[in-house]
Design goal:
Length: 142
């Protein structure tokens, strides 16, 4: 949908990216489906769409991965790759596909991309794994 298009607006760039493994959680984040209250609420699996960690009214993939203060510590390692800033949705194409023209960039730039890419994918997996675990615990208590 719109979220996926926002993250990966160029199918050509996606198809030309270096080979990489796509994890379950990364795909969940890219398509906006998963353990997000807004998604669960849409299918009557949650009472409302508010984040259970910070009470933001719209717990979406964008909110969870990029905005929710509850997950700030999990985003901290990305600061090393983004000049001290947390990742944003606008940086996803570079983090997943590499810089434009990656085929012609210096080897050191490619290595930096691979490290940033692996860190981003690890961050998504960590946040989503923990979030799903917390959601299962919360549902058991209800």
């Amino acid at each position: 949908g719109r979220w996926t298009h926002r993250l990966l607006s160029s199918i050509t760039r996606w198809l030309k990216k270096p080979p990489m493994a796509l994890t379950f959680h990364l795909i969940e984040m890219l398509i906006g489906h998963g353990s997000y209250q807004s998604y669960l609420h849409k299918y009557n699996r949650a009472d409302d769409s508010a984040c259970v960690h910070c009470s933001d009214p719209d717990d979406s993939a964008r909110h969870t991965i990029f905005c929710c203060p509850y997950w700030d510590a999990k985003r901290a390692r990305m600061l090393l790759f983004l000049n001290g800033r947390p990742p944003t949705p606008e940086e996803v194409p570079d983090l997943l596909c590499g810089p434009a023209g990656i085929e012609e960039v210096a080897e050191s730039t490619r290595k930096t991309f691979v490290r940033a890419h692996n860190e981003f994918c690890g961050m998504v997996d960590t946040i989503m794994s923990r979030k799903e675990e917390k959601e299962r615990d919360r549902q058991r208590r209800v």
